[in-house]
Amino acid sequence: LERTFSIIKPDATERNLTGAINAVIEKAGLRIVAQKRIRMTREQAETFYAVHRERPFFGELVDFMVSGPVVVQVLEGEGAIAKYREVMGATNPANAAEGTIRKLFAKSVGENSVHGSDAPETAAVEIAQFFAGNEIV
Ligand code: ATP
Ligand code: MG
């Protein structure tokens, strides 16, 4: 079974949406095999989003990710990476399909409630940044 890395972002934890988002995840057939609520450090956020370092929104993105608690997760299932991106919906909630997490809950293109890995290589790197192997069950 494939694994993907997920973050429930500060805009969602702030509005007490962790359970509602987990319900959408589980209803889609993905299993939450690791989960913890943390306050990301600025260094962790900068490392996590290093591929976006040159983008104009990088500073805003890092400020947002450290602005409140996040829930980091590992999700497991058949085709978990693609399935979770489908469940999340488009980056900009204005373009997200009905029933997706971002359509249901996101506030804006920046404060868009969730992150999901975009490929097997990035999933492996992202999972390893936040979880030890024995924390994933
Ligand atoms: P994520 O990587 O969080 O799953 P994504 O892959 O759909 O989202 P990316 O293009 O990788 O989108 O951008 C990473 C994150 O950066 C977005 O989820 C969003 O929080 C933020 N972001 C992207 N575009 C913008 C923008 N134009 N303005 C502000 N923030 C943005
Ligand atoms: Mg991305």
From TrEMBL:
Positions with a binding annotation for ATP: 9, 57, 85, 91, 102, 112
UniProt main location, coarse: cytoplasm
| Pfam families listed in its UniProt record | NDK (PF00334)
Cellular compartment(s): Cytoplasm
The Nucleoside diphosphate kinase-like domain sits at 1-137
Q: What does this protein do?
A: Major role in the synthesis of nucleoside triphosphates other than ATP. The ATP gamma phosphate is transferred to the NDP beta phosphate via a ping-pong mechanism, using a phosphorylated active-site intermediate.
Q: What subunit structure does UniProt give? A: Homotetramer.
The entry's protein name is Nucleoside diphosphate kinase
Q: What is the lineage of its organism?
A: Bacteria, Pseudomonadati, Pseudomonadota, Alphaproteobacteria, Hyphomicrobiales
